[in-house]
Write a structure and sequence with these properties.
353 residues; 3-stranded antiparallel beta sheet; 14 strands; 5-stranded antiparallel beta sheet; 9 helices; globular; alpha+beta
Length: 353
């Protein structure tokens, strides 16, 4: 019932528990899970479509549509169909992450903290019983051992295990849907975790597939339309991530100097020109990040328009002041009535995570 109910928010998920929940949910509705390692993929001679996969115990599984969820390996989409990959490291140079959990923060803050480091940035994600930490960095500027030492030195509590390293290349497949194979998640592409987009992109990929779900003829126009929609989504998120680095005012560090001065995609350059002139925000209808997201990064990192939107001049200053004052008063009133974050979790969270 709060006036703030319509404001967008995000969840801090324990991804492992979330995956277990989705598995239970799916299997209860008829999904059949078969354990095994795929050692061979069979293709149809006429058109190169996948007809079956064979596991290391000799079993073969035929199908009409195959969804590749094999992670960075891209077992079907890349190793079998050789789809190709667009490498975006020229714009997003971070290619490593070292991660470790630490003891829970008390009281738990209701936000993720991202802290700039000499060769990248560090995340801190508070969960109920632990804190997620990681250092995303560019291996051209720091070694894995140095990055691990930096991460451990900046932990908010005691580590709960050994640090683990993830290697990645920001980018995407040249086609998410190739023949009768659709790549989802890391098999389709990866954008560094600055805005925590991985789970969203999995869900979005599923939604796109459902929108263009094929019959056994696999119409080429449907496949092209689905690929175009996914391409546009990845590229808009890519540009939003690049903005965080490009707009930095940090100087004197080779990594950040590169991020500030390197060329940016024409699509992002157009957005910046529009905003710098009269504060206009260009956004596609299906993009993940809304105008408020772009505004927060642009203004927050010091990019200001030269003039306000011309239509704003039609409103009297007193009316604008009153409108903004009402927003401020509403927020203050709601905050006074809201429980602290830790109190809310204690009252509503039945299962820790």
């Amino acid at each position: 019932d709060s006036p703030l109910a319509g404001i967008a928010h995000a969840f801090h998920f324990d991804a492992t528990q979330y995956a277990r929940y989705l598995r239970r949910y799916s299997e209860a509705r008829g999904v059949r899970r078969i354990e095994g390692r795929i050692v061979d993929v069979q293709l149809r001679g006429a058109d190169g479509f996948i007809t079956a996969v064979r596991t290391d115990d000799g079993r073969s599984f035929e199908g009409d549509l195959f969804i590749d969820c094999s992670g960075f390996a891209g077992l079907l989409i890349e190793q079998t169909l050789h789809t190709g990959y667009e490498d975006w490291r020229a714009w997003l140079p971070c290619d490593r992450a070292v991660a470790v959990a630490s003891t829970a923060l008390q009281p738990p803050p209701p936000y993720t903290r991202a802290t700039a480091r000499p060769a990248g940035w560090q995340w801190r994600i508070p969960l109920q019983h632990r804190t997620g930490n990681g250092y995303v960095f560019a291996s051209d500027y720091i070694s894995e051992d140095e990055a691990t030492a930096t991460l451990l030195a900046g932990l908010p509590g005691q580590p709960l295990g050994e640090p683990r390293t993830l290697r990645f290349t920001s980018g995407k497949r040249k086609r998410f849907w190739n023949r009768n194979c659709v790549a989802l998640g890391l098999a389709g592409g990866f954008l560094e975790p600055l805005e925590s987009t991985s789970i969203y992109l999995i869900q979005s990929g599923i939604a796109r597939l459902l929108s263009f779900f094929p019959d056994r003829h696999f119409d080429a126009d449907d496949i092209d339309a689905c690929n175009a929609a996914l391409d546009a989504e990845y590229e808009s998120i890519r540009d939003f991530l690049i903005l965080h680095y490009h707009a930095t005012r940090r100087t004197g560090t080779p990594f950040w100097d590169r991020c500030r001065t390197q060329p940016i995609p024409p699509s992002l350059e157009r957005r910046l020109r529009l905003f710098r002139s009269h504060g206009r925000l260009q956004r596609g209808r299906d993009e993940m990040f809304v105008e408020e997201n772009w505004l927060q990064v642009l203004i927050g990192q010091g990019i200001m328009p030269a003039a306000h939107h011309p239509l704003a001049a039609l409103l009297p200053q007193a009316e604008l002041d009153g409108y903004l004052g009402d927003i401020q008063a509403t927020i203050a009133r709601c905050v006074r009535a809201m429980p602290a974050h830790g109190e809310f979790l204690a009252a509503h969270a039945l299962h820790g995570g």
